[in-house]
Automatic annotation (TrEMBL):
Domain of life: Bacteria
Protein's name according to its UniProt entry: CTP:molybdopterin cytidylyltransferase MocA
Record domain MobA-like NTP transferase: where: 6-159
Keyword Methyltransferase: no
InterPro entries linked to this entry: MobA-like_NTP_Trfase (IPR025877), Nucleotide-diphossugar_trans (IPR029044)
SUPFAM superfamilies, per database record: Nucleotide-diphospho-sugar transferases (SSF53448)
Protein's organism: Tunturiibacter lichenicola
Key word Nucleotidyltransferase present: yes
Gene Ontology terms, MF aspect: nucleotidyltransferase activity
Pfam families: NTP_transf_3
Amino acid sequence: MKRIGAVILAAGASRRLGEPKQLVKIGAENLLEHSVRVAREAGFSPVVVVLGASAESIEAECELGDADVLRNDNWCEGMSASVRVGVGALHDLDGCVVMTCDMPGVTALHLRSLAASGEVAGSTYDGRRGVPAYFPASLFKDLMELRGDAGAKDLLRSAQCVALAGGELDVDTIEDLARARKLFG
């Protein structure tokens, strides 16, 4: 059985939304709690949450259970800094799924399908590739070398992809939030 961890990126400032997106409710849970629950349901362990902006209030208001909560003091650098913090905390695994906290369409089934082959795999939606994405441990070194806000896009260019229904919806604006609440609860 493969040992797979999850790294949930939740460090951004949510400037376009105007409030911490990690805490907005869709149905009975907030976006960050949803992401942690889905990663657990997929069978991933450990589940690592990387916080940055508004970390104190997010930690205080979220029920994250046994998730490993880490702080990215360099969150302003962009997504790659959070990837480095999260992946740097993983040890003795076969791979990990990297995901963001603002995609309410992500399911445990989708996450498991990304990891099924053991090869790098990204999600596809709206004609592009992105997260959630699975990376075998052989690519952890490459993930640790990422810089800037592009994340791991270069590592996903030639990767296999799994279609993610609703993946184009990430909660960045008030309009996105209204759409997510209409679709998911």
